[in-house]
Amino acid sequence: MQGGLNAGSAGMSGSAYAAATGTQPTTTTSTQGSSVSDREAIRVGSFSLTMEELLAVAVVVNALGTLTALYMEVS
Question: Where in the sequence does UniProt note compositional bias of the Low complexity kind (predicted)?
Fold first, then answer.
């Protein structure tokens, strides 16, 4: 699932982070020569979210909760 929420650091085009900021995460090369992303991902099993993607999910959930509460008040 390239570009999805569990895409990790590879294939970030189309991710929530790229959509929200219009940029891609940058990678740096350590002294050992391995490519490391400068943004940490939160992993649960094979599912991972960057902090930016987690924040985007939290904002959407918060907005849905607010809309639901407003709908309940009106009806």
Answer: 7-35
